Amino acid sequence: MTSEDKMTGESPAVTLTIRLVMLGKEVGSIIGKKGDTVKKFREESGARINISDGTTYPERIVTITGSTDSIIKAFKMITNKFEEDLSSTMQSPTAPKPPVTLKLVVPASQCGSLIGKQGCKIKEIREV
Q1: What are residue 95's DSSP bridge partners?
Q2: CA distance from start to end of the chain
Q3: What is the Cα–Cα distance from 63 to 14, expressed in whole angstroms?
Q4: In a 3-state reduction of DSSP, which class is residue 12?
Q5: Is residue 73 scored above 90 in pLDDT?
Q6: With a threshold of 0.85, does the pTM exceed it?
Q7: How far is CA 37 from CA 18, 33, 62, in A?
Q8: What gap in Å lies between CA 44 and CA 76, rounded to an integer?
Q9: Is the separation of the CB atoms in 104 and 78 below 8 Å?
Q10: What is the pLDDT of residues 2-49, one digit of tens each?
């Protein structure tokens, strides 16, 4: 990051990829009817969102690629969609919502930097 980037608050132009493992019904919610929902997420976030073929396994991999900002937007849209779906299926609006669990796929080569020295980085992430 250059000093100019720090002053303007912009992050450097880097393309990142995150992968999430989801069940078929969760992926169906993201795809939407005729793919309308995922198309909207792609357009509004600017991220590429690809979903693996679901014919072999019950779980599918959702790959989100783009700039840090576009990935954050796409991820937020996905989680908001899950919250909407959960709220619409709740019997009682006063009942506590069950947690939504997302599985993030992290390559073994990057696990060390995610955990940090003596677990400091993962501890910091958990506290956020």
Answers
A1: none
A2: 24
A3: 16
A4: coil
A5: yes
A6: no
A7: 19, 7, 14
A8: 11
A9: no
A10: 444 444 455 567 899 999 999 888 898 899 999 999 999 999 999 999
